[in-house]
Amino acid sequence: MKRKSAVTSRDVAERAGVSQSAVSRCFSPKASISEKTKLKVLKAAKELGYRPNSIARSLITRSSRTIALVLSHLDNMFYPLVVEKASLRFQAEDYHLLLFVVPEEGDFAGVMDSILQSQVDGILMMSASLTSSLAHECVETGIPVVLINRNVDFAGISQVYSDNYHGGYWVGSYLAMGGHERVAYLAGLESSSTSRHRYQGLVDGLASMGQQCQVVAQGDYDFERARLATLRLFAEPPYPDAIFAASDHMAVAVMETLRTDLGRRVPEDVSVIGFDDTPIAAWPSYRLTTVRQPVDRMVEEATALLLKQIRQGDFNAENRVLPVTPILRHSARQPAREPVTD
Amino acid sequence: MKRKSAVTSRDVAERAGVSQSAVSRCFSPKASISEKTKLKVLKAAKELGYRPNSIARSLITRSSRTIALVLSHLDNMFYPLVVEKASLRFQAEDYHLLLFVVPEEGDFAGVMDSILQSQVDGILMMSASLTSSLAHECVETGIPVVLINRNVDFAGISQVYSDNYHGGYWVGSYLAMGGHERVAYLAGLESSSTSRHRYQGLVDGLASMGQQCQVVAQGDYDFERARLATLRLFAEPPYPDAIFAASDHMAVAVMETLRTDLGRRVPEDVSVIGFDDTPIAAWPSYRLTTVRQPVDRMVEEATALLLKQIRQGDFNAENRVLPVTPILRHSARQPAREPVTD
DNA sequence: GCACACAATGAATACGATTGCAAAATTGAG
DNA sequence: CTCAATTTTGCAATCGTATTCATTGTGTGC
Prior knowledge:
Two copies of one chain form a homodimer.
Chain A (H helix, E strand, L loop, with lengths): L8 H8 L3 H7 L8 H14 L5 H8 L4 E6 L6 H15 L3 E6 L6 H10 L4 E4 L6 H10 L3 E4 L9 E5 L1 H14 L5 E5 L5 H15 L5 E6 L4 H11 L8 E4 L2 H13 L10 E3 L16 E3 L2 H18 L6 E4 L2 E3 L15
Parallel strand pairs in A: 1-2, 1-3, 3-4, 4-5, 5-11, 6-7, 6-8, 8-9
Antiparallel strand pairs in A: 10-12
Helix pairs in contact in A: 1-2, 1-3, 5-12, 8-9, 10-11
Chain A binds a DNA duplex (30 and 30 nucleotides) through α2 and α4.
């Protein structure tokens, strides 16, 4: 079997009877080349099966046209959706995503190291929180970083996330208006700022109606841990009459556990509210009341922001907070009248 | 804001008082370098924040340590699982995945073009069927290609898939033994060989018990289309008493539709069997009887195969067919006695 | 037909590493 | 201490392209 594309721009040049520069110019959009030679070159290129070597191009242009996509778990359907959309969006601009999966125990520094070596033009993070020293390292090397659905208190890093606080706030007031008196919060990972903001919103939303959050359990955005947490919540009275889960993925785990292991009905015995509005939330078996994150807009903003920063080189970090939308379905007892969202 | 890692091996060399070659050797695992100078160099490197430029390395070594991962949809949970595992597996070998998403309408040739330009060391395909001309192109450039969960009749391309035929066969005999008489098959994409093999197995499995498949509907591996297909199956009698869906994802769509729109009970009125055994299949709401694909083994075989082919350069295409496992849950009426699987 | 602007071309260099080769330094044996 | 064997080191070439610069060619207005 033969070795890889041994055919270079020089080979094409020779065959077409022009210089290597001419060949190069045929594949650069804005280079100055006559129509006549361009045709000769393209003909020769096709005959030889020539394709510009993007590695060499990257070396000279100092741009790999590659974005590092950093993530940890793909079990929550929210992330695959983002991955797919983001990849298509970047491909349209002739950029490609290089995948970096941070393992459970998170040797994040190691991953960061290989990212930095890989000469990516930008970093899109939708995973594990960035420690500030690593953030510092990124900013220092001048690589644009955009966090999506995550945030970190560090100037110089751009962030795109949805309005977690007001999403939580809506849930709080909605549950309070629905007459719930023992509301539980099923939190995501402790390191997750999104989970904290949702919680803070919940607390304030409840407070606005004279209620408070009675108990917090840890679900870590994981299906099985959410199940266990639910069982713990119902280990002994007083039992919650509503559970707000920090993701739909966990909310589904809660519903399954309530119905099966605990023999509770949703929403008659316990109300359940999620966050994200993944496709599963709409399935008839769940009909999950939830808070929709605008995935398309998030991806759009994140890619646009990243591309902008890559292109202008000199940039300032920006934060984009996108509005969420309450989705009223049937997993939570409805208030007598519509809630006021603020 | 500064430009990227302006620090090169030359800078490090100067600071450490050695030649640039020496610096390079410090970062090559098997190069000959004395302990003393290695320390000097590493010290200087750390002080300057030096990281080898992997683009330059790729150019000279003619290896990008990058694998193209080609996929189309991520909505079936089977694929995100594969992506995550494969990425971790390759990272462990210091390879990384470059994502190529084939859009719905599948401008596959265009995608293939950018893959070839990107100088990847190998291609892992879990998407849209490869047309034979494109396959030819791959083989010609000498890039190893492994199809996972897909196959194509073309020598020179390696394939890793599970035993779809026998999976289907088991389903057929199991349904027949359960006394079903009007079995429907909900197919995946028409171009999908896996779907065809599962169907063939189903037909033969049914035949082995003197039954046959009564009707085939097209679900294209898509949730919504599977819903519509199910509605069509029940538009007028005679109604199926069992549906075998080519994926769990579609099987869930079927169950939801049966229960909600059609008021049928599963499995009392209609049996449903899926394929894959994604996590969702085990959820109490579905308890889906299904055929498990060995995801871990598939990923393991595929990565091992690809790496082997990359390393030895001269290789022969191989096919690996992995055994599937029937998972008996409660979405299909059980036969009186255990079925004989062959 | 001439001067001038401007487009098209080729030669040469740079990008940042790896690596073969030969010189230099180190080691070991006698 | 000397000489051979071995390891360490630096020089220089290379990978395949983009791009600057100087040069040649083409067309335009007078």
